[in-house]
Every structure is written in structure tokens, then in C-alpha cells.
Amino acid sequence: MPLRELQYPTEPYSKVNRLKDRADYALETIHQxxxxxxxxxxxxxxxxxPFPAVLPMIGQMGSFSRPSADLGDVLDLYLHGYVSSRIMNxxxxxxxQEEGVPxxxxxxxxxxxxxxxxxxxxxxxxxxxxxxxxxTLVTDPAEKLYAMELITESIVPHxxxxxxxxxxAAEMQSTSVxxxxxxxxxxxxxxxxxxxxxGDLEDEALLERVWTGVVPVYTVRGEPVAGGYNRVGEVPGYxxxxxxxxxxxxxxxxxxxxxxxxxxxxxxx
Length: 269
What we know:
By secondary structure, the chain is of the alpha+beta class. It is built from seven helices and nine strands. Strands 1, 2, 3, 4, 5, 6, 7, 8 and 9 form a nine-stranded antiparallel beta sheet that branches. It is globular. The two termini are 32 Å apart.
């Protein structure tokens, strides 16, 4: 962990303008949101399209030169995909002297449905992050293998070592990896209970009639279902242990997020 908390610079295109109190520019906060998001949405400008392309992709932040770097350090984003996909072809056709393909990457988690007295005051508890950077193809075989393992481990920890590895030559040739050098980023987070207008809060009849509160929302990893040719009798311990832990953590965060803002107000007061 760095001696002081590192933050991304605020640029006109990355600065949170509405509800600025929900903004966070800390590398650790942003990287945690990205690395815990099972699906990233990657936007780039394809040369043969009048519209920006947006692709759902799997990715993970890390550092090939400093594998032990933590989430508060400067990290790159690794994305993998099919070798001849549009995003890989775009990166491949970019002049090697250029920075790379400009990309915007979005990650978001829904943590709760915030139900207020009036629909206009309804909201979500959420965590969202946006990264801005330039992508180039990874050409070093060692870095490519590092990124493939990093991404696999982000899906299910310890899965890489418990599968047939390393990838064979055909798998390595059919897969490309992008390294996105991050220029800046920002996060926006909402926690707490509903907030209503004073006029509605003073309406006793409305308060008696309308339920208000938060419905926690979190992703659950369900009971594993064996494949048709599976010959392993029991679900491996590393998989079942991780499934239980990640489910507990997701539920705990969603429920604690409801009270987080309320507790903060009491402490500040």
C-alpha cells in the first residue's frame, strides 16, 4: 500500500458533476469496484462504424511488473477476447507509435432498491466506476499468460491451478489480451436510506399509507450443477468455500450499505 492514498486526476470528462458528495477518485476504491465486477462494459470507436462500440467483457486490474501491487497502487486493466474480434483488430491496426486505442470502461454494482414516499425520490444503492485509458495488444508471452491467469482467478480463485494449464499453442493463438494504461477514473457511490421532501414527510396520512425502506440487492453464486461428463464426485473444496464466502460478503455489504449513511450522520452529529 502506498504511504499516502493515491487518487486519479480529475479531468473534465471524468469529474462527477451531479451529487459530488458521492464521488470518489481514490485508486483503491475504483480498482475494488472494477475487480469485483463480473462484467465490464468497454466502449471504443471502431474505425468502420459511425457509432461507438460497447462490449461486455471480462477484465481485471493488475501489474505484470509488480505482481504484489495492491488495489491502492497504479495498475493496468487487462481484457481478453478472441483474436479476430473487432476490438482486437482495432488495437492491432493502431500505429505502434501511438498510445493505443482510447477506451472507456464502466463497472457497476446494484446494492439496493431505495423505496421512498414518491417515485421521484426512489433511488438505488450502488457502486459505479469509470476508467479512461489507452489499450494496446500484449505481445510478451509471459505477460499474456500472467493476464490470462489473473482474469481466470478473478472469476473463481484457485481455478487456474485446478484446471488443465498452461493453455496449449492453439488456445494461446486464438486468444488476444489488451493492456489498458489508465489515464484517469472516478467512482460514484450511494448508500443509506430513502430521502423524501419535507412536505411529504409532514404528510401524516402519506406516512401511514406508503411503506419506505431499502430492498438489499446482491448477486448469489448458486449451487454448482455438474456437467454431463463430470467424473468428480464432490464439488471441490476451493469452489464451495469461495462460493459461501463471496455470497456472505455480498449480502453483508448490501445490508450494511442501508445503515452506512445513517451511522455516519449520527457520528458527525
